[in-house]
Design brief:
Helices cover about 20% and strands about 20% of the residues. With about 300 residues, the chain is of the alpha+beta class. The structure holds ligand MTE.
Amino acid sequence: MTYRFKTDLTEADVTPEADFINRRALMAGAGALMASGLAGSAAQARGRYDVDAKPNSFKDITSYNNFYEFGTGKGDPARYAGKLTTRPWSVTIDGLVDKPGEYALEDILRGMTIEERIYRFRCVEAWSMVVPWNGFQLSELLNRVGVQSSARFVAFETLFRPSEMRGQRRDLLQWPYREGLRLDEAMHPLTLIATGIYGKPIPNQNGAPLRLVVPWKYGFKSIKSIVKITLTDRMPPATWNMQNPREYGFYSNVNPNVDHPRWSQASERPIGGGLFSRRRPTLMFNGYAKEVAGLYKGMDLKKNF
Ligand code: MTE
């Protein structure tokens, strides 16, 4: 399958974060290398991310967060996640795979194509950002471990370590945080495992060292600090869905036509716009309908919310 990611922004539209520009320069350098036949993947990766808006600042992205393992306040993750040890790190991949095991982070990253993807990010709470992620396609990892033909879903789990994650010492949610995707959603080329933001290693508050990013779904599907990935034939438990199934469905595709029982999803508040920030209409599938609507053909999206 070949997917194209539209790139209708020019360099000039991108937030002038100094290191992002530097990274761009590096990428350009990689292009030159490729021209001389010395390097490939980095330059080839350029332009495959989806952009249609100005990325938020690094500060916005890393200081206004949801990561209940560190508390429920938007500033709690930035304040407390520094405590989290992310090395050594490993991810157990099990269930319906040919090569189950506990994989060291370094082994997972070895040979992966790290791409830049500028994605819209829409929280179920009706705020939004635009984030320049670095990461690899989840499909690359799943293909490496060999998905068996009976697998239908992918389940994910976050680290459980109350000694470093102060929110886990309280019953804020059922720990560990869990999420799940249908296999075809997990294999979709837009589905990313993020390892960085603005070319820097992903900060702890954003889900270091590996976090899921599914740009057409509400942000809570994008589970952080992953330690377990299980291929299964059953729809797996998902934290917010278990917490309140009436309010949070398993699919949780961004859908302006299906309101949350307590608020409208028709519009959103972009973070970082300051005084002039206006609400803007929320787009079906968060603007990725062209790429993903086909996954839900024939489904009643009001029922399967
Ligand atoms: N993952 C874990 N483990 N714990 C969480 O509380 N919050 C989710 C999601 N992933 C959460 C999580 C929610 S509600 C959102 S909106 C996004 O992370 C926020 O990601 P960000 O802080 O990088 O913007």
